[in-house]
Task: inverse folding
């Protein structure tokens, strides 16, 4: 089974508090200093339990690899390099794939830029250069929304997050030399953009932030970020709510502006950069989980935890005697989600934290298996 290469990184878990003044004026963003942390000797102080979900491997379900994973309470939706989408229910049962929907027909998509599962409509949504295609859970064609705005037609939106059955947040890939980047609200009933807002980007050359919206209105834009935003669902205004303070460890444009070759720049940022990089960030309730890289070896990986209830800052090491800490794909309702192959499953779970069903799945794991979802329930 194909395994995606991932740079070494740190996982940071930060608990923060957001509030507004009585008159509606937003307070300054909460600044979180990641340097003041104590080591956690026992990861069980943070992880209450683990659960393994075995993805079905029936005909049509097997994936040789995947590019993106969307997690909701009811489904797992995988996007693959072959443009095929795979949909599983929350227990890992295979629902369907989109292999018969790829093409140039009226009910097909020739190009897949992004996809999601709309919990309000129960439909799978596929982003194309021309609009959004809608399919039911079995990938039967439901309809489409064709872009009518000139600006929407000029964008190549590759990320969609649903605010309702017909209101969607759309983001496009970042232009490396463009200083201005925008978030769009699109109405698929009206077939047009209804709101547009500019946002700041810290480093557009690093793009591990593939799931940009979490917890309903928390946004981490599709690049390396030290600052994060809430979106007001009434007027769609952006409000900076959290920022990370890493002192002189933060990446600045002056650290890489001398590179004239883009390939050399990306190689530097991936392999030789000594600065601390916040790569992937989620929010659930009053906690934020952020994937942060601070070196090129696994010894540099840590999981920082800041809890404002007791104002105590701590961190998990990457490696413990029994388990390692993986890359997380989502953070929903206090549960962290990771997706691994059979060859990596054992190193990410502790049998003491597993229920009996998960222990059985671990015991019968096979090289012929599909992917496994690991759920980490935080205390």
Result:
């Amino acid at each position: 089974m194909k395994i995606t290469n991932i740079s070494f990184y740190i996982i940071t878990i930060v608990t923060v508090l957001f509030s507004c003044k009585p008159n509606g004026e937003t307070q300054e963003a909460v600044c979180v200093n990641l340097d003041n942390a104590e080591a956690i000797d026992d990861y069980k102080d943070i992880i209450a339990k683990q659960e393994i979900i075995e993805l079905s491997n029936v005909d049509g379900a097997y994936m040789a690899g995947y590019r993106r994973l969307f997690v909701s309470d009811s489904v797992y939706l995988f996007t693959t390099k072959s443009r095929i989408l795979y949909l599983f229910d929350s227990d890992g049962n295979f629902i369907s794939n989109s292999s018969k929907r790829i093409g140039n027909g009226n009910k097909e998509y020739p190009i897949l830029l992004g996809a999601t599962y709309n919990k309000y409509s129960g439909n799978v949504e596929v982003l194309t250069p021309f609009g959004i295609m809608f399919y039911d859970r079995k990938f039967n064609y439901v309809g489409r929304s064709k872009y009518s705005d000139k600006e929407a037609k000029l964008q190549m939106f590759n990320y969609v997050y649903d605010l309702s059955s017909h209101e969607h947040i759309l983001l496009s890939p970042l232009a490396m030399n463009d200083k201005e980047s925008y978030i769009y609200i699109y109405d698929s009933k009206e077939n047009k953009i209804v709101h547009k807002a500019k946002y700041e980007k810290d480093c557009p050359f690093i793009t591990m932030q593939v799931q940009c919206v979490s917890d309903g209105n928390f946004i981490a834009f599709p690049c390396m970020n030290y600052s994060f935003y809430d979106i007001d669902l009434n007027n769609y205004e952006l409000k900076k709510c959290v920022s990370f303070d890493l002192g002189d460890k933060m990446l600045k444009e002056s650290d890489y502006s001398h590179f004239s070759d883009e390939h050399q720049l990306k190689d530097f940022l991936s392999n030789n950069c000594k600065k601390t990089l916040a790569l992937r960030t989620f929010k659930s309730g009053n906690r934020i989980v952020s994937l942060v890289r601070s070196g090129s070896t696994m010894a540099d990986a840590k999981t920082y935890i800041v809890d404002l209830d007791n104002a105590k800052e701590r961190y998990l090491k990457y490696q413990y005697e029994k388990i390692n800490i993986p890359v997380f794909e989502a953070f929903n309702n206090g549960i962290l989600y990771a997706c691994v192959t059979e060859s990596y499953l054992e190193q990410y779970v502790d049998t003491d934290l597993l229920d009996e069903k998960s222990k059985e799945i671990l015991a019968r794991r096979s090289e012929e298996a599909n992917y496994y979802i690991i759920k980490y329930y935080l205390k």
Q: What stands out?
A: Residues 1-26 have pLDDT under 50 and may be disordered. The two ends are 33 Å apart (CA to CA). The chain has four helices and 27 strands.
